[in-house]
Write a structure and sequence with these properties.
This is Toxin RelE. Helix content is about 40%, strand content about 30%. A five-stranded mixed β-sheet has the order 1-5-4-3-2. It starts with a strand and ends with a helix.
Length: about 90
């Protein structure tokens, strides 16, 4: 299993989403899938993909509709970088 770590910007994003009543259970579920590195779920349900351009080195998955999770993998560690909507992140 991989280790999950977060950065301060991600925590600020989560706080903002909680205030907007996003379902944090869905975020916890996505983190568990990342921890297990379940490629079938990541590629299918979460539409996980590599980012390009100035976000090279990061990956993005869709938690729900327009709700995204941007992260980076370093060995056995997953660093959660940002979460929010397309408009808010990109």
């Amino acid at each position: 299993m991989r280790e999950i770590s977060v950065n301060p910007v991600f925590l600020r994003d989560v706080k903002r989403l909680k205030q907007k009543h996003f379902d944090m259970g869905l975020l916890v579920e996505a983190q568990a899938v990342l921890r297990r590195n379940d490629r079938m779920l990541l590629d299918g349900r979460y539409r996980d993909h590599q980012l390009k351009g100035n976000m090279r080195g990061f990956r993005e998955l869709h938690i729900q509709g327009d709700w995204l999770l941007v992260y980076r993998v370093e060995g056995e560690r997953v660093i959660l970088a940002r979460t929010g909507t397309h408009d808010g992140l990109l």
